[in-house]
Amino acid sequence: MKEQADLLYTFQAIARCGGVTQAAQQLGIAKSTVSGHLSKLEQIYDVKLVQRSSRQFQLTAAGGKLLEHSLELVQLLTRTRTCMAEFTKQISGVVRITAPLASGNMILPELLHQFRRIHPAVTFELTMSNEQLDLLKNNIDVAFRATALNDSSLIGRRLGWIRGVMVASPEFLRQNPLGEELQRLSELPVIAYRSDEHWRLVNAQGHEREINIRPIVRVNGLESARQLALKGVGVALTPDYIAAPALQSSELIHLFSDWRGRATPYHLVYPSRLTPSIAVKRFIDFTLEAFESGCMKDVLAR
Questions:
Q1: Burial class of residue 169 in the structure, from the number of CB atoms within 10 Å of its CB (0-12 exposed, 13-18 middle, 19+ buried)
Q2: What gap in Å lies between CA 294 and CA 281, rounded to an integer?
Q3: GO molecular function of the protein, one example (predicted)?
């Protein structure tokens, strides 16, 4: 039964990825192993499951029906495995995570370190990317995302809020006096993200201002903006958690502290259609607790 479940899991990957080669890459096993699993299934059921050519791949009618039923079976087996794992003393397994580059590099090292102190048999696979990857297609368990959620196939748990702060180096401010008027920003050289033509700012009272900006450098990464600000190149509007260490050391100065960029929700998300393994479930619970009251509670605004 276990062997057949493994064959069905491979078959699902073939159907999901659109071919044997792609499925082998996603599963991290040899192409010959994937082909062997497919052949074994076709022998068991005595029916052709896929039509293949050098240019085209598609499921046969029988393959489509098998995929439909195998999804239910594999999910049932996953739920059973999760239930039984609750009775074991040591949790093990792989947790596959994707996160944006800047926030992932800031958050995940400490989060994973603290989690593995409790569950040392759990391992992780990290995919750091600013692209919002398809979790099912890429076989990813959980994702960290700095955005509002619009995908009904995902369950999202908000961890906190990212707020933009305007910063500049002391040397830059000595050469470019700031003054007291917010509009002064439109006259100063700034470091902007590629699509920014103006900054939308909000204060504690909820009043909004839109400031036209004069970018002298455009970047596509948060860390690049921070580094350029540290070098005195210009003013940067960057997430508070990115700027925090340099603000604490006075390498950067917080400008117009009554005003901030619009807040962006930061979520932990995972597929709603799948039952997570016990390792994934424990990681989700640990992460929520860490941001609520644990090792991550001061990283994001609540």
A1: buried
A2: 17
A3: DNA-binding transcription factor activity
Structure tokens at 270: 């995972």
Distance (Å, whole) CA 199 – CA 190: 11
**pLDDT by residue (tens digit) across 17-75?**
888 888 888 777 888 888 888 999 889 889 999 887 666 778 899 988 988 888 877 77
Nearest to 169 by CA among 249, 97, 114, 108: 249
The two structure tokens encoding residue 4: 């057949």
Domains, the chain, in order of start with CATH, read 2-85 (1.10.10.10), 93-161+265-293 (3.40.190.10), 164-262 (3.40.190.290)
Pairwise pLDDT comparison (38 vs 1), residue with the higher score:
38
pLDDT score at 133: 92
168-219 pLDDT, tens digit each: 999 999 999 988 899 999 999 999 998 888 999 999 899 999 999 999 999 9
3-class DSSP state for residue 125?
strand
